[in-house]
Specification:
single chain; 166 residues; alpha+beta; PH-domain like; 2 domains; four-stranded mixed beta sheet
Length: 166
């Protein structure tokens, strides 16, 4: 079977989408600041200070999403071939992982989660979490891992979900 390479560094947000995220974050921040200024500096007590928490909170959440969309790491990939599973992916701090097929004893594949648990011959295990990868790519990656494991005559255990400890 040929190797399969997925580029995970592709932009998932367009430039316009990123600009809109930053504008929304700034507008909600300004709205929260306006409520504080009107209440504390101008003395209008008809608008309670506690109402500024909502715009600041929304601004924080949208700002975090805008930061992650703007500064997403480059060089992230997922490679599956006859020798190994190799990937570099992470939302905050991308990590590089390599798992040779000859070290893997069996796979556990949950049907309701975007994860794959690798159980190695030495008894240790590792969970590949594909939750943050675009839906269609994570589905293709899971299928490719499954079919390659079947080709290598590895035991593939299908479960509904992995336990919360894993």
């Amino acid at each position: 079977m040929e190797s399969t390479y997925y580029n995970l560094s592709e932009e998932e947000f367009s430039k316009k989408g990123k600009i809109l995220l930053w504008i929304f974050a700034a507008l909600f921040f300004v709205a929260g600041g306006y409520i504080l200024v009107v209440n504390l500096l101008l003395g209008q007590k008809s608008i309670p200070v506690i109402l500024s928490v909502a715009p600041f909170g929304i601004s924080l959440v949208v700002g975090i999403i805008a930061i992650l969309a703007t500064f997403k790491g480059s060089g992230m990939f997922f490679l599956i071939d006859n020798d190994k599973i190799e990937y570099k992916y992470g939302v905050i701090k991308p990590a590089d992982h390599t798992f040779p097929w000859n070290n893997i004893k069996e796979l556990v594949m949950p049907s309701r989660q975007k994860k794959v648990k690798l159980i190695f011959k030495d008894g240790s295990s590792f969970v590949i979490n594909l939750t943050w990868i675009q839906g269609s790519k994570s589905g293709f990656i899971r299928k490719r891992i499954y079919h390659t494991a079947r080709e290598k005559d590895l035991n593939v255990i299908k479960v509904i979900t992995l336990s919360s400890k894993e």
